[in-house]
Amino acid sequence: MSKNELGTENIWKLVVKYAIPTIISYSVYTLYILTDRIFVGQGVGADGLGALSIVYPVTFIQFSFAILVGLGGGSLISIALGENDREKAEKYLGNAIAITALYSIVFTIAALYLIHPVFSLLKVDASIYDMAYGYILILLVNTPFLLFDFIFICYIRSVGDPNGSMKLIIATCVLNIILDPLFIFVFKWGVNGAAIATIISEILGCAIGFWYFLAKKDAIRLRFKNLRIEKAIIRRIVILGFSPFAMELIVSVQHGIMNIELMKNGGKLAVAAMGIIISIYTVVMHIMFGFGDASQPIWGYNYGAKRYDRVFKTLKISLVYGCLTVLFFIIIFYIFTEQIVYCFTTEQDLISMTVHGMRRFMFFSVFATANIVISRFLQAIDKARLSIWVGLSRQGYIFIPAIYILSAIYGLDGIWYTGAVSDLLSGLLAMVVLSASLKKLKLV
User: Fold this and answer.
1) How many domains does the chain have?
2) Which of 136, 172, 236, 348 sits 20 to 30 Å CA-CA off 195?
3) What is the pTM of this model?
4) Per-residue exposure over 254-281, b if at least 16 CB sit within 10 Å of its own CB, e if not
5) Which regions in the chain score pLDDT beneath 50?
């Protein structure tokens, strides 16, 4: 990483330089998710897609901690490097690794005891119960590898190496894409094959990440002395990473509620349809996250260096690029909705329901870009409370009441419209909060 680059390079060029590998990284990851669902849909059928949808809430809880430590610690590392304090950055790295190892053990043990009660709460259909249960058991083995892999992706980008972060993601996702059809179609392992392919791929990502911070000469180093957990450091990581963590945790609650309402209003076919919609919506979401995460090292470094003019200019460029890119993909999805859904399933009833639901669910997705980018921005400049307030709106205190209200009034259609309503209102809220806060933050 060149520190001068983050503090002196033309902002337009810098955003593009960081955004391209980050978007490519997310695109490859999205391709992995989509092919995973496509292979399961084609190889196992609607029940397989339904089983994956049921597992979503549990995996979101699993992944939320990686977001807490990855994005919270990543922002602090960038700020420390902007302050020219390499030792502090290495302390953040070491403490993050130590607390993640501890969490992996605690989460796996707790989850093993809670799977059946959670599945009962979600009212899992008997026809897909065993399939979903077997899938989640295998994924629990993957807990430490999943967490470390994501954290390394964040930290490599935070030290100013977006290309290194991209290469790590590409390596793990390409391996997964290769193994998925082998395990599902050739070995006939069904959804369990998809889970095993994920574990093997994440192990590769962990190996690359540990090598980067243990052996790469120009990176901050993972040192044994920094593995000793310090409460003050963990507290800062948790405070700064809490907004995206809470968002991810709320997503698990959101999906649980959504699955209950879907089963009530449309049965397991509706659950499978939403599984496809969410898989496709992930493409749009990862573009939003890509622009927010790509800008995070630039925001953090320049905020630490007190270059507030560059911080604000980066925000404007990220919002413009992000909104235009998302709008482009939404138009593509609307034009080719049926063809895209057909990749996941050939069952006509499922195709019809998914196309109908997708066009309603994603209608205002461009507004969610403002919500996510602004939330990431506030997090990157160490404004945790504002980040939490903005971030939780979309998945939490707007979406959850909306799904109950709209499903009560419009039934299944109300559930499809919930995504659009949530995106619109949370995006508008984020822009109002940002406008009111910029002068107070002294960034303009």
Assistant:
1) 1
2) 348
3) 0.69
4) bbbbbbbbbbebbebbbbbbbbbbbbbb
5) 1-3
